[in-house]
Each structure stands twice: as C-alpha cells, then as structure tokens.
Amino acid sequence: MNEPAVRVDTASQVPPYAQIRAQLGALIVTGQLAEGERLPTVRQLATDLGLAPGTVARAYRELEAAELIRTRRGAGSRVAAPPAGPTRSYASQLTTLARDFTSAAHALGADTEAIMAAVHAALSPDLDSST
C-alpha cells in the first residue's frame, strides 16, 4: 500500500474506525489490495490520518475478525488469502460487509428505506431501476 487510499471524515457520524474498516475492507474484497500485500503499521496509518493508534488498531482487529487480514508480530498486517472451498461459512464476512455498507450509506445521509432499496436493486440487477 504505497499511498494513503484511506480517508477519514471527522465530521461524519460514522466513527473513524468504521470508516477505516469499510474502506480497507472494500479495497480487499474488490482485489485492489492483493493477497499478501502489507498494510501500513497501526502507528503509521494513525499518524497519516491524524488519529489515535487505538482507532486504527480497532479497525485492524475487526478486519482480522472478518478474516480479511492477518497480523503477525514482527511481520505486520497483510491481506489474507481468499477463503478456500465452497463449504466455508461467509456469515462473519457478510456481516462485516453489510455493516460497512450501511455505515457508508448512513454517512451519505441515506435512511433505512433508501439503503434497503439499494440492496434490493443490487440483488436484482436485471430489473428496471425505475420501478
């Protein structure tokens, strides 16, 4: 991760750790951060964003709980390998992605009805968006 791809809006109602988690999670899930790619250290990202290290650490812990990153003492945090096998449960990752999406949508000012409509539209791309 060469340049800061993460930005935090301190005026947002979404907590900074959730913004970091959502942005990094999206970069990982979309493949913009590749497997094995090293993330900035907690201290470095905190300094870059002007936040407390605990804020970044919480985001990293949640990404690790969602199995999107792996952290090893001395080796830092890296993007985890994609899950193997179709029998694997994606419940925790889906929960994290849903939380990240709703946090970002609320930050845009969307209400629950608009968020649900967007999810419905995403699940039914073949339907006309004007209906």
Describe the structure.
This protein is mainly α and 131 residues long. The chain has helices spanning 16-29, 42-49, 53-65, 91-107, 112-123; strands at 69-72, 76-79. Strand 1 and strand 2 (76-79) form a beta hairpin. It is globular. The protein starts with 15 loop residues before the first helix and ends in an 8-residue tail after the last helix. The model has no long low-confidence stretch (mean pLDDT 84).
Brief summary:
It contains 5 helices and 2 strands. It has 131 residues and is mostly helical.
Describe the SSE topology.
Blueprint: H1 16-29, H2 42-49, H3 53-65, E1 69-72, E2 76-79, H4 91-107, H5 112-123
Antiparallel strand pairs: 1-2
Helix pairs in contact: 1-3, 1-4, 2-3
- Helical element count? 5
Strand order of the largest sheet: 1-2
Query: So what's the overall shape?
Result: globular
Secondary-structure element order, N to C: HHHEEHH
- Unreliable spans are none
Rounded to the nearest angstrom, the radius of gyration is 16 Å
First-residue to last-residue Cα separation: 41 Å
- Strand-residue proportion: 5-15%
Pairing-aware structural class of the strands and helices?
Answer: mainly alpha
What composes the largest sheet? 2 strands, antiparallel
